[in-house]
């Protein structure tokens, strides 16, 4: 369990742009993690005026942080905790479908399955669920990972 | 499959990853995949994966590094098929 916490700690994000609370499971083929959209997140002030709903781009970001970046850190760690901390990620493509809204305070679960990880490109099939286990969004997310030892 | 057919096949693999307007004729042996054809590194990986499937070969990291132009890609494919 503690190694999952290490992964979250190694993420290059901070409030208000960290969208991972906890990794629930993780292996070479995929992972699962959760996040609670805190009511005081700044974007709720403007999306929408007097009607806060989590923006789709933020849901995509949450899927990417859990499904792509956390998994990427795990796949690149190579038993060396320092490699993990130096990994950089560049999001290269997203193809998402949105089915249900997420309101302030909701807890979501992101499930990610590796499609492939080759030549530093990680592509994942992701899906986000709410607490009722309803599908919120799903899609494909890919990024280029670069570890500190690369250059 | 002749060498010419393999080249046509490679062109067809590359084409959907070209960012703009580019026609099949824009893909020449001397065209640099990243600098001239403006293919980004993520799409280059997808081209390599498509090449692997199409020709039933496996490319390594070194091949990826050497694959600068369309001609380089052709050379790598030819050497793997031997």
Q: How much is the radius of gyration of chain A in Å?
A: 15 Å
For the record, the CATH architecture of chain B stands as Orthogonal Bundle
- Which oligomeric state applies? heterodimer
Computed Rg of chain B: 12 Å
Query: DSSP strand (E) fraction of chain A?
Result: 35-45%
Number of helices of chain B: 4
CATH architecture of chain A: Roll
Give the topology string of chain A: H per helix, E per strand: HEEHHEEEE
Describe the model:
The complex is a heterodimer of chains A (151) and B (82). By secondary structure, chain A is of the alpha+beta class. Chain A has one domain (2-150): Thiol Ester Dehydrase, Chain A. Helix content of chain A is 24%, strand content 38%. Chain A is built from three helices and six strands. Chain A has helices at 2-10, 56-76, 81-86; strands spanning 22-27, 30-36, 88-98, 107-118, 121-129, 135-146. Chain A is globular. Chain B has a single domain, classed as Orthogonal Bundle (Non-ribosomal Peptide Synthetase Peptidyl Carrier Protein, Chain A), CATH 1.10.1200. In chain B, 55% of the residues lie in helices and 0% in strands. Chain B is built from four helices and no strands. Chain B has helices at 3-14, 41-55, 61-66, 70-81. The interface between A and B is small, with 11 and 11 residues.
Offer a concise description of the structure.
Chain B: Carrier of the growing fatty acid chain in fatty acid biosynthesis. The complex is a heterodimer of chains A (151) and B (82). Chain A is α+β, with helices and mostly antiparallel strands and 151 residues long.
Strand-helix topology:
The complex is a heterodimer of chains A (151) and B (82).
Chain A: H1 2-10, E1 22-27, E2 30-36, H2 56-76, H3 81-86, E3 88-98, E4 107-118, E5 121-129, E6 135-146
Antiparallel strand pairs in A: 1-2, 2-4, 3-6, 4-5, 5-6
Chain B: H1 3-14, H2 41-55, H3 61-66, H4 70-81
Helix pairs in contact in B: 1-2, 1-4
């Amino acid at each position: 369990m503690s190694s999952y916490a290490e992964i979250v700690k190694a993420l290059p994000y901070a409030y208000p742009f960290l969208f991972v609370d906890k990794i629930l499971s993780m292996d070479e083929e995929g992972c699962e993690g959760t996040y609670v959209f805190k009511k005081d997140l700044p974007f709720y002030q403007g999306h929408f005026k007097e009607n806060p709903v989590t923006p789709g781009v933020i849901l995509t970001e949450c899927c990417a942080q859990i499904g792509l970046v956390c998994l990427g850190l795990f796949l690149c760690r190579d038993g060396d905790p320092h490699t993990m901390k130096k990994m950089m990620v560049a999001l290269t493509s997203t193809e998402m479908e949105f089915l249900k809204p997420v309101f302030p305070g909701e807890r979501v679960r992101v499930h990610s399955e590796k499609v492939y990880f080759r030549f530093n490109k990680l592509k994942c099939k992701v899906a986000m669920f709410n607490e009722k286990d309803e599908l919120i969004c799903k899609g494909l997310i890919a990024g280029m990972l670069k570890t500190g030892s690369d250059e | 499959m002749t060498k010419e057919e393999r080249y046509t096949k490679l062109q067809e693999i590359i084409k959907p990853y070209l960012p703009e307007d580019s026609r099949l004729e824009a893909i020449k042996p001397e065209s640099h995949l990243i600098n001239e054809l403006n293919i980004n590194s993520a799409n280059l990986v997808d081209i390599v994966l498509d090449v692997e499937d199409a020709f039933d070969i496996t490319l390594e990291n070194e091949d990826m590094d050497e694959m600068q132009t369309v001609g380089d890609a052709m050379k790598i494919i030819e050497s793997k098929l031997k």
